[in-house]
């Protein structure tokens, strides 16, 4: 069975470091263009495909949307690992906000987890950091809302905290 791929793999999509630069539904400030409230954005797609895609050890990239999907899948896995330490929703918000704002490697860094997938020109690195920080903050908000609906961690999400997508960590 093949992995689920992004619906945002249009070759005409604007690119940032060889990945799609897509609009997202968010209140977090950043460079991403706003998406409509009823539109499905890349974050909705990544969360929706996470439970199925996390079982795959390989992933064929079909376009620029898949590059973001891979990164967000790895980031969601990292969020779930952090949420294991949270006892309630308030603590979970704090943990994921801290995680999103931590300094993370960009494709220009040697410690970047996905070196062959992204290619950044020197002028794109700062915009990449801003856009992916915005994505990380929004993913954190949505994951807390999903995992801590009743102020207790949802076991059907937390059971995926030990899985590794593509045998990688961010």
Automatic annotation (TrEMBL):
Top-level taxon of origin: Eukaryota
Main location: cytoplasm
Gene Ontology BP term (one): Arp2/3 complex-mediated actin nucleation
Coiled-coil parts of chain: none
Subcellular location: Cytoplasm, Cytoskeleton
GO MF term (any one): actin binding
SUPFAM superfamilies tied to this protein: Arp2/3 complex 21 kDa subunit ARPC3
Record's keyword terms, sorted: Actin-binding, Cytoplasm, Cytoskeleton
GO cellular component: Arp2/3 protein complex
Pfam families: P21-Arc (PF04062)
Function comment: Functions as component of the Arp2/3 complex which is involved in regulation of actin polymerization and together with an activating nucleation-promoting factor (NPF) mediates the formation of branched actin networks.
Family of the protein in this entry: Belongs to the ARPC3 family.
Assembly description: Component of the Arp2/3 complex.
Protein name (database record): Actin-related protein 2/3 complex subunit 3
Originating species: Collodictyon triciliatum
């Amino acid at each position: 069975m093949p992995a689920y791929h992004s619906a945002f793999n249009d070759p005409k999509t604007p690119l940032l470091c060889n990945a799609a630069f897509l609009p997202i539904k968010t209140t977090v400030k950043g460079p991403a263009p706003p998406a409509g409230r009823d539109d499905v954005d890349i974050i909705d797609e990544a969360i929706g495909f996470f439970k199925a895609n996390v079982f795959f050890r390989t992933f064929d990239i079909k376009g620029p949307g898949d590059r973001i999907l891979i990164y967000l899948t790895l980031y969601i896995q990292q969020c779930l690992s952090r949420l294991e330490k949270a006892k309630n929703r308030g603590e979970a918000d704090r943990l994921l906000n801290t995680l999103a704002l931590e300094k993370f490697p960009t494709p220009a860094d040697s410690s970047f987890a996905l070196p062959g997938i992204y290619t950044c020109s020197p002028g794109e690195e700062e915009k990449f950091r801003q856009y992916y920080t915005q994505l990380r903050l929004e993913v954190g908000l949505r994951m807390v809302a999903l995992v801590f609906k009743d102020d207790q961690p949802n076991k059907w999400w937390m059971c995926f905290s030990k899985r590794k997508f593509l045998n990688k960590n961010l």
